[in-house]
Amino acid sequence: MTKKTKPNYRGVKKCSLPVSYNENDTYKWVFTEDNNIFEYAEIYEAFSHLIKTSLEYNYEITYKYYDALKNSIKIETVAMHSHNFNDVIETLYYYPESFNIPENDKDNYSASELAFLKKLQNYLLLMGLKDKSDSKDMINLHRKYKNELNSKKYFKELVKLERKETLERANNKKVRTYHEAGYFMASDNILDAILNKEKNTRIFRQYSYSTSRIKERYFILDNDYNYKALIEITDENIIPFKDLKVPVKEYRLNSAKSLLEYKEELFDYFKEDNTEEFTEDSLISIATFKIIEKY
To answer: What is the DSSP-derived secondary structure letter of residue 274?
Structure first.
């Protein structure tokens, strides 16, 4: 048996501000206050201690659990909050069905945080995840030890079963099926045209390292990050940008009044990515796709 030793924290005793410390390949943020050493997993937590201020993310979820004392299933919606965005993500992961941010609490989140949570929630639901709740095995375990809920034997079996169910939940076949699929957003009019099979092409920028897109799959999301369809590229035509021509209906779907306006907007969009220079002679791919699934 290896004796556990306290971290050395060499030099930290003189540090009143957080410094990173690597212990067994795990980084901590450490500082000294009144001869006491404080350690935190994240720098946010360390500075939250120092400035005596924390972030607050409010949300609500619905618990469905077995009450061993009353031998009944209970459903309860509770308001909760976290001081760390990672904790919000973890809660959403375990409660994707009921996780909700009340309208008057959305000001506590940035626009990018709200967008991330919305897309993640829709993704988890698409992958078939349900809210965490007591399984039949868990209920039977509670019943078995209903008079010994504080016993070590109950706790040992509880931890073992929780780990087993956590691993089973994470073993998601849909994620393995769709993990290579990309995604793109679509406005309502373009989305309707795609779903009604009035539009089956998308234009991609070509790079020096681009390979064939045939057989590639993409999710189509609406502007609220709802997954609407899965498409697969069936063909593509590589041409210089200057040779691009599209039907009137196509550029009007993109709210352009003319082909020239459409091309100017598309050119500016491609040029925003300065990974490689984009000019009128640069190559683009006009990809044809088919709908694999609708949601």
So the answer is: T
The Cβ of residue 62 has, within 10 Å, a number of other Cβ atoms equal to 15
How many CB atoms are closer than 10 A to CB 23? 12
CA gyration radius, the chain:
27
Could you tell me which of 133, 73, 141, 164 has the C-alpha nearest to residue 149? 141
pLDDT digits (tens, 9 = 90+) for 202-248: 999 999 999 999 999 999 999 999 999 999 999 999 999 999 999 99
Residue 134: closest CA among 86, 185, 66, 62: 66
Secondary structure letter of residue 2 according to DSSP = P
The residue among 138, 161, 3 whose CA lies nearest residue 73 is 138
Q: Are strands 182-185 and 217-221 parallel, antiparallel or unpaired?
A: parallel
d(CA 51, CA 242): 57
In angstroms, what CA-CA distances link 281 with 35, 113, 264, 267, 284? 67, 38, 14, 11, 9
189 close to 253: Cβ distance less than 8 angstroms: yes
Place of tokens 């067994």: 24
Residues 6+ apart with CB under 8 A from 112: none
Domain boundaries, the chain: 12-51, 57-173, 182-294
Superfamily covering domain 182-294: Sulfate adenylyltransferase (3.10.400.10)
Global pTM reads 0.85
Strand 72-82 with 57-67, pairing: antiparallel
Mean pLDDT of 251-269: 94
The Cα diameter of the chain in Å comes to 78
